[in-house]
Amino acid sequence: MATKDKFGVPVVAGEAGILMPKLKFRFRVTMLSGFGGDDEAGQRRFTQNVVNVSRPKVSYEEVEIHSYNSRVYVQGKHAWEAIQIVLRDDVTNSVSRIVGAQQQRQLNHLEQTAPLAGEDYKFDMRIEILDGSTANELEFWELEGCFLTNVDYSDSDYATNEPVQITLSIRYDNAIHKAGAGAIGSGGGLDMSGTGDNAFEGPNAEGV
User: Of 136, 163, 174, 205, which is the most exposed, with the fewest CB atoms less than 10 Å away?
Assistant: First the structure.
């Protein structure tokens, strides 16, 4: 007698079971337009050498409004937190080369010159969750207006067997969350961030 459909939290009579979760180790990071000067081969090597990446986090400021005998709160501006990517520094120097090229786009350390505008050095990137069977993504985050805020080239140590790593801190302007081509139960490209055609529209009210 099968019992696997009896595990999990029952939500309605006769319906239980556990939905398959997304797994942390099934992911892919892809650098898009602009990173390192659009070196496609270098960007592929970058993807192959990613060790881990943090996912986007957003916070919303509170605006306090004082009134007679009380106070209320409304939402203020939001802020996306910087993310980190850890990479292996391979023996072909492909990772260190493209990371160095991106730093040169942000500031030419030899000539001590800087780009005129953000569009001259910013790049886009994508963080995808994969299904483990195909190259299709279940979901993806697309980060826009990215630039490096910190590059850590790790260290060397006679007492360890670990690979040399490079850690990048990346600031970005905006993040869009969407279902991917391999999404189960919904069409690919479904906007999950509430910014597209299917975004929730609340009542047009002025109260708080």
Answer: 205
Which CA distances in Å does 94 have to 45, 97, 154, 196?
Answer: 6, 5, 16, 37
Structure-token pair, residue 65: 């409004």
Candidates 32, 2, 37, 8; CA nearest to 20 is 8
What value does the mean pLDDT of the chain take? Answer: 86
pLDDT, tens digit (0-9, with 9 covering 90-100), for 104-131: 999 998 889 998 999 999 999 999 999 9
pLDDT bucket at 198, cuts 50 / 70 / 90: very low
Residue 32 main-chain phi, psi, to 5 deg: -105, -145
Domains, the chain, with CATH or none: 21-58+77-179 (2.30.110)
DSSP assigned state of 164? P
